[in-house]
Amino acid sequence: MVHLEWTAALEVGHPEIDADHRAMVSLLNRLHAASSRSDQAAVRIELATLEALTRDHFAREERLMLDIRYPFAARHQKEHVHLFDEIGAQIDDFNEGLLGAAAIAQFIRRWLMDHVETSDRQLCAALARCCQRSF
Description:
- This protein is mostly helical.
- It has helices spanning 15-36, 40-68, 73-95, 101-131.
């Protein structure tokens, strides 16, 4: 996995969501660094932190969806549930020695990039329309 730089291309235009995404990118980079050093203790800490941040981020997004009665909320929430279940399964596999941290980080990186580009951009556009302003 290559270091992921935060760029304007990753921004969706909502300060709270962008801050979470920026934190996720930072965590993915720390996870990769710990994995590269074969520092299993640090990997476990970064995975736990990433799992907690992901849970909190999803809760924030879902609150925003409820606030504006977002018409695609169910589909978006389903993506969240699927990712959270997959991260949990991959962490279990890591703890059992079946999967490396780099593979988990790569999976999350791909998912984050795809999700930001599609679902999160749509949500933030709806938030901007609802609030009649950009963030």
